[in-house]
Amino acid sequence: MDRTYNFNPGPAALPLEVLEQGRDSFMEYGGQGMSLMEMSHRSKPVERMIAETEELLLELIGLADAGYRVLFMSGGASAQFALAAMNLLTAGKSGRYVLSGGFSEKAYEEALSVGEAEVLASGKSHGWARLPDVDAALPGLTAADTAYVHLTTNNTIEGSQFRRFPDTGAIPLIGDMTSDILSRELDWKRFAMFYAGAQKNLGPAGVTAVVIREDLLAASAGAKLPAIFRYATYAANNSLYNTPPVHSIYMMKLMLEWTARQGGVAAMEARSAEKAALLYEAIDASGGFYGGIVERPYRSSMNATWRLSDESLERTFLQEAQAAGFAGLAGHRSVGGIRASIYNGVPVEACRALAGFMHDFRKRRG
What we know:
alpha/beta; Aspartate Aminotransferase, domain 2; Aspartate Aminotransferase, domain 1; 2 domains; seven-stranded mixed β-sheet; three-stranded antiparallel β-sheet; 14 strands; 16% strand
């Protein structure tokens, strides 16, 4: 099979091995004589599969015995922008938001619709080309007036990524890790909660993983919300309060098993560094033909972004790239330019081929 080099930002590339496993079990699962999608979510095979998926995720990030729970929810990260504030903002406290790109702004705006929220630090004045200094903004904050600090760890649209994370002490740190979860080793315990839509590094679209520390979960249990919106409801019912996106969770399980077989998060980090280096070398060695959108210290290992000298040349680049078998390279509609999303499921060979195409295009068009 000739497969396209898939650089889409999400839904994104999945390993062929994972897709083949999903295909092979599509019609019949676990000797049950029916598809997983046909089974009751109250059945033992489905309950067991969801429990195993939670265990796998916690094991991969080293939180299996650290007092965290995994909730499988719907609505993507966009739903979590609202639900985090709804569950965790309490009277007399503000949510403090680090603005580093378009999605972090959306999270902040959703919080404003729920309760008190303030911008803790922002990189907007630099056109999102650099990340704000979060540490400099922390002095003076206390748990008495701050419900949480919210930070987007990787900016999918702009192509920037935090390399280190603040120590917020008694104030819960919440992370939107949708576009870089499982791509690198980090101090996961810095976060009281983090969440990720599956459609980048965890599997197909349709399910969102929320990893929340049990003390924060307990503190949020009294939120005056409909049951379906409460984190405590999902925890008490092992993500089975309502009918979950069963097949998406199963595909996440397959993706987590694949990640473990590759060597876990450490191996994903090394592979991500190799892939990113191929593309950034093509940008930096172009003599200005390609220009990176984000300043070098803040570049993402998941979403490489660049511009050409004019929009006409960018359109030509995208047309020729598509014809050559490269998909999903157009930048986000809000910023334009070129973007290559190089999540865990994107093989090194795809980045090597794209870097070669970039060199060739520059020679022909430069």
